[in-house]
Design brief:
18 strands, eight-stranded mixed beta sheet, ten-stranded mixed beta sheet, globular, binds flavin-adenine dinucleotide
Length: 519
């Protein structure tokens, strides 16, 4: 992935007619672009910021059917998601893992309820099941989760779901698009839709955020995959269009692994206010969340509310013998769910279905909103199929069910590097050539200098934040450590990408302002 080369296409061939233009580089847009590219359509994806800068880097990191959606009776959604879970674990084994969960149970009624419920969940997964669920008694539950409060505990229900690295999955999708002949560009914002004399969409007007240069890009089918921003694009199509999105904020906190001391995750199916709370081991830390707070503002950089952080800390403290406090939190991150607006009851976000919606406007704008990371592949397939049904693009078969992101390439000395995919051995080569690059960028972060150099050469990071938040997950693992590592990382980036000292200084300063949102 090289942005200069990719953007050159727009400069060299301004009249090029694309088959498909995708707006939005989150899970949804990248999934749609990969589906389109692999069917053989000439495809371009435009992202106004960095890939997965929006909701797609701020998830709970689960590849799951959704135990909660089953409890809400949305069985079809769960069956579909469980199927997609199986495909994602098969096709991206380097970024996903089988995670064991334990539901602590405190009444015999709950033992019965959750045992039966999770057996049903297993059944729905069919042959793509990740392991059977079963009941364990109190002492075995405490063996698995030594820091779980024992008072009144009857035992636990063990079940399995998938876990993944969301923003690295997004980069894997972007990279796969490029490898298959597609064009994906970050920092290119769509400002306007182009239409012909009959009012049909013929392309987009986009602006390069880095250079300010504007482009008119022509395409047969324009797809709006902008998540919480979908209504902005709807208004570009029709200024009178009604709001369709009601954002709902979900917050997570990250703690040191000493708060869980287990490789099993905890799932609390019903908190005080009827939510689900997870505490999940992730890259040597524990991710705890989430909340569900309806909001009126839509932003790329949402901020956790004090009451959301307090709720997570309070609830975790009710189940753990070592209750976490504010000062123990390594990172706080917030994401916005693009839920469908309910004009009759705008506050009801917990009950709104997480199912995605695909719509086609009169002028030919195809929009895909909602859904889950887990289902990105199926959502993409349905979106392109809808484009075919509309007659805008010709029929071609979807092939992503068996599209593999990883073939067990060169054996690696460090298993951790697998997250970089098939070319990860190049990072080890870099260290062999220059042993200094084997040093960590910070003693409390797992990343070496070689990874920074390799990412600069291969994964199109535009800013220091792209590197620390989404190519590596330094910001999410330990925000303060990432801030301390910022000068070293900025210097490595500048040296590799040929950028100036003043670039480094302004990036460090921007990054340190940004992390106030995460600490
Ligand atoms: C708290 C929380 C936890 C979640 N946990 C899970 C989970 O564990 N598992 C799971 O499967 N799902 C989970 N989800 C759901 C999942 O994260 C989302 O469904 C998914 O990330 C949405 O992706 P998206 O591409 O639609 O939106 P986004 O990721 O927000 O992407 C939209 C992109 O469009 C870009 N854009 C907007 N306007 C323009 C423009 N004019 N020009 C160019 N680009 C533009 C934005 O910059 C943005 O990057 C969770 C969601 C939340 C909020």
């Amino acid at each position: 992935m090289n942005r200069n080369i990719l953007i050159q296409t727009l400069q060299d061939e301004p009249q090029k007619q694309w088959d498909i233009i995708v707006i939005g580089g989150g899970a949804t847009g990248l999934g749609v672009a990969l589906d389109a590219v692999t069917r053989g359509y000439k495809t371009i994806l435009l992202e106004q910021s960095d890939f997965a800068k929006g909701t797609s880097s701020r998830s709970t990191k689960l590849v799951h059917g959704g135990v909660r959606y089953m409890a809400q009776g949305d069985i079809l959604l769960v069956i579909e998601a469980l199927h997609e879970r199986g495909l994602m674990l098969k096709n991206a084994p380097h970024l996903t893992a089988n995670q064991e969960f334990v539901i602590p149970v405190y009444t015999w009624w709950d033992v019965f309820l959750y045992t039966v419920g999770l057996k049903f969940y297993d059944l729905l997964a069919g042959r793509l099941s990740m392991g059977k669920s079963y009941f364990i008694n109190r002492s075995r539950a405490l063996d698995r989760l030594p820091l779980l409060k024992a008072n009144g505990l009857k035992g636990g229900i063990v079940y399995h779901d998938g876990q993944f690295d969301d923003s690295r999955m997004a980069v894997a999708l972007a990279s796969a698009c490029v490898k298959n002949g597609g064009t994906v560009l970050n920092y290119l914002r769509v400002d306007m839709l182009l239409k012909d004399e009959n009012g049909k969409i013929t392309g987009v007007k986009a602006r390069d955020i880095e250079s300010g240069r504007k482009y008119s890009i022509k395409g047969r089918l324009v797809i709006n995959a902008t998540g919480i921003f979908a209504d902005e694009i709807h208004r570009m199509d029709n200024p009178l269009s009604k709001p369709t999105i009601r954002p709902s904020q979900g917050v997570h906190i990250v703690l040191d692994k000493s708060f869980l001391q287990s490789s099993s995750a905890i799932m609390i199916p019903k908190t005080d206010d009827g939510r689900v709370l997870f505490a999940i081991p992730w890259y040597g830390k524990v991710v705890v969340g989430t909340t569900d707070t309806p909001l009126d503002t839509i932003t790329l950089e949402p901020k956790a509310l004090d009451q959301e952080i307090d709720f997570i800390l309070r609830t975790a403290g009710r189940y753990l013998t070592k209750p976490p406090k504010r000062e123990d939190v390594k990172c706080i991150f917030a994401g916005l769910r693009p839920l469908a607006a309910n004009p009759d009851n705008p506050e009801a976000t917990k009950e709104v279905s997480r199912r995605h919606k695909i719509t086609l406007s009169r002028s030919g704008l195809l929009s895909i909103i909602g859904g889950k990371w887990t289902s990105y592949r199926r959502m993409a397939e349905e979106t392109i199929d809808k484009g075919i049904k509309s007659g805008i693009i010709e029929k071609r078969k979807c092939i992503t069910k068996n599209f593999s992101f990883y073939s067990n390439g060169m054996p690696l000395e460090s298993e951790r590097l697998k997250i970089y995919g098939n070319q990860a051995s190049e990072i080890e080569e870099l260290i062999k050539e220059k042993p200094d690059l084997g040093e960590l960028v910070h003693q409390n972060l797992p990343y070496t200098k070689a990874e920074i150099v390799w990412i600069c050469r291969n994964e199109m990071p535009g800013t220091l934040e792209d590197m620390l938040a989404r190519r590596t997950r330094a910001l999410f693992l330990d925000a303060r450590a990432s801030s301390e590592a910022a000068p070293v990382v900025a210097e490595l980036m500048a040296n590799t990408l040929g950028l100036s000292k003043s670039w480094q200084e302004s990036e460090i300063s921007n990054y340190r302002k940004l992390i106030l949102n995460y600490t």
